Amino acid sequence: VLSRELSLIQIKNIIYNIKNKNIIGPSGNLMKIEIFCHGALCMAISGKCYLSLHSYNSSANRGSCKQNCRKKYTLIDKENGFYIDVDNEYLMSSKDLCTINFLDKIIDTGISLLKIEGRARSPEYVANTTSCYREAIDYILNNKKITKSKINFWFKKLNSVYNRGFYSGYYL
């Protein structure tokens, strides 16, 4: 899975080079490239989060993130004892990645696989999100152009399950 910090231009360049240089994977076929298309964004650089390991001895880099960055915190001024509850906000948490509104551009890169971050999510979340992206992919492959009404429909569907607000990430 490629890093979430790459742009679509960089991803397209990687895929171009795989095809141009005939880079073969273990299967004997051209390497397949996968990117995240939806879900939690790490507040650290992908693969470099050590908060979970330090706090809970549970490595986020091995799929066991305890999501420290998504917890609520109280800030304490050690000099004067004042504290601030960060009310209804998350101090370090970023929004969730959502690419539904430019999924056509992602498909145009030649990407092989799309990954939806769904670890520790409810069955409702997984079913809703995967069905939404499946519908969008099929629509794009059959119609080539996404309409504003379709995007609004998919956003409404994605907003019906837990999220922290949506962000396009670094892709655009």
Automatic annotation (TrEMBL):
**UniProt-listed GO biological process terms:** proteolysis
Q: What InterPro entries would the database entry show?
A: Peptidase_U32 (IPR001539), RNA/ubiquinone_mod_enzymes (IPR051454)
Q: Which PROSITE patterns did the record assign?
A: PEPTIDASE_U32
Annotated coiled-coil positions are none
Keyword Calcium applies: no
**Transmembrane portions of the chain:** none
Q: Which GO terms describe its molecular function?
A: peptidase activity
Keywords, sorted A to Z = Hydrolase, Protease
**PANTHER family in UniProt:** PEPTIDASE U32 FAMILY (PTHR30217), TRNA HYDROXYLATION PROTEIN P (PTHR30217:SF6)
| Identification of the protein by name | Peptidase U32 collagenase domain-containing protein
Protein species of origin? Clastoptera arizonana
